Amino acid sequence: MHDSIDVANDFFVREAGEWAIAPVTRQEITSYYREDAMIWRVYLGLRRLDRVIHTYILHKPYVYILPGRIRR
User: Is there a domain that residue 41 lies in?
Assistant: First the structure.
């Protein structure tokens, strides 16, 4: 049975042609996902800080909607 990584790599080998896309590994995908999750945590944390500054320090309305907790 093939997992999705094998299917994607097989597709890249067959269809990539001149692009020469290198096969991906589970470790590369996991590393990318961790880095992406960390970037979003920092970004959303800074948006929450911005909301606190606008609401409680500057006494201005915060017009943006922030997402709730994200379960990973």
Answer: yes
Task: Residue 41: give the domain boundaries.
Answer: 4-57
Count how many domains the chain has: 1
Is the predicted pLDDT of residue 53 greater than 50, yes or no? yes
Measure the CA–CA gap between 3 and 47, rounded to whole angstroms.
37
pTM > 0.85: no
Distances (CA, A) of 50 to 3, 36, 37, 45: 42, 21, 20, 9
Residue 62: CB atoms within 10 Å? 16
In a domain, 9, yes or no: yes
